[in-house]
Design goal:
This protein has about 220 residues and is of the alpha/beta class. The chain is about 45% helix and about 20% strand. α4 links the parallel β1 and β2.
Length: about 220
C-alpha cells in the first residue's frame, strides 16, 4: 500500500458514492483561488460528517475551524431548515471566502461564520442565549489547542451530543511522547483528557486516503 493506491481507492469510492456537486466543487475552487492550503476534508470524509450529523438527528452544529467552508457545507446540509450551524474561523480572509461559499450553496440562512480566536469566542458562546447546546461539534483547527477545544465542547453540549476531532493520528506521530511538535503534543493532550473524562465515551479510527495517513476521534457525551 502506498499513497498512489490510497488515492485510487478514494477516487473509486468518491466516484460511486459521492457524486460531483457544483456547490462543493465551487467551494474548493474558491479556496484554491484564495491561496488557502488544501487541508479541507476529502469528499468521502465530508460525506461521512454529513451522515454522522444526519444519523445524530442534529439540529445544531458547532464547527471549530472553517477554512473555506467545505466541511461546513457538508454539515449544514444535514440540518433541517430551522437548524443552526456556527463555525469559528481565526483568519478573516478565510472567513470571507467561506461566507461566500455558504451563500453560493444556499446555506447562509442556516450557517454563520464568526471570526477570531476560537478560545476567545467559545466563552462568549457559553453565555449567549440560544447558542447551545449543540448536538454535534466538529473540531478541525489548530491542533495544539485540541484539548482546550474539547473542554469547551463539553460546556456547549449535553448528554447524547457527539464530538468529532479531526487529524487525530498525525501520520502515526501521535504515539511519540517526546515530540516537540505542538500539534502532536496538543493531540496527545486531547487523548489524555478524553481518556480520563467520565462524561465522554470515545474511540479513534486511523484512516488512509488522499489526505495521507491520519484519522479522527469520535466521542459521545454521556453525562
Amino acid at each position: 500500500m502506498n499513497q498512489e493506491q490510497w488515492n485510487a481507492v478514494d477516487r473509486y469510492v468518491t466516484d460511486l458514492l459521492v457524486p460531483a456537486d457544483e456547490a462543493l466543487t465551487a467551494a474548493l475552487a474558491a479556496s484554491d483561488a484564495a491561496g488557502m492550503p488544501a487541508i479541507n476534508v476529502a469528499p468521502n470524509q465530508g460525506k461521512l460528517l454529513h451522515l454522522l450529523a444526519r444519523m445524530q438527528g442534529a439540529r445544531t452544529v458547532l464547527e471549530i475551524g472553517t477554512l473555506g467552508g467545505y466541511s461546513t457545507i457538508w454539515l449544514a446540509r444535514a440540518l433541517p431548515e430551522d437548524g443552526r450551524l456556527i463555525s469559528l474561523e481565526y483568519s478573516p480572509g478565510h472567513a470571507e471566502v467561506a461566507v461566500a461559499n455558504l451563500a453560493h450553496a444556499g446555506l447562509d440562512k442556516i450557517a454563520e461564520v464568526r471570526v477570531g480566536p476560537a478560545l476567545e469566542i467559545l466563552p462568549k458562546l457559553v453565555k449567549e442565549p440560544g447558542a447551545g447546546p449543540f448536538d454535534l461539534v466538529f473540531i478541525d483547527a489548530d491542533k495544539q489547542n485540541n484539548a482546550h477545544y474539547v473542554e469547551w465542547a463539553l460546556k456547549l453540549t449535553q448528554p447524547g451530543s457527539v464530538i468529532i476531532v479531526d487529524n487525530a493520528i498525525r501520520g502515526g506521530a501521535v504515539v511519540d511522547a517526546g515530540s516537540a511538535d505542538p500539534a502532536i503534543a496538543g493531540t496527545r493532550a486531547m487523548y489524555e483528557l478524553v481518556g480520563r473524562e467520565d462524561r465522554l465515551e470515545a474511540t479513534a479510527v486511523q484512516t488512509v486516503g488522499t489526505k495521507g495517513w491520519d484519522g479522527f476521534l469520535l466521542a459521545r457525551v454521556v453525562a
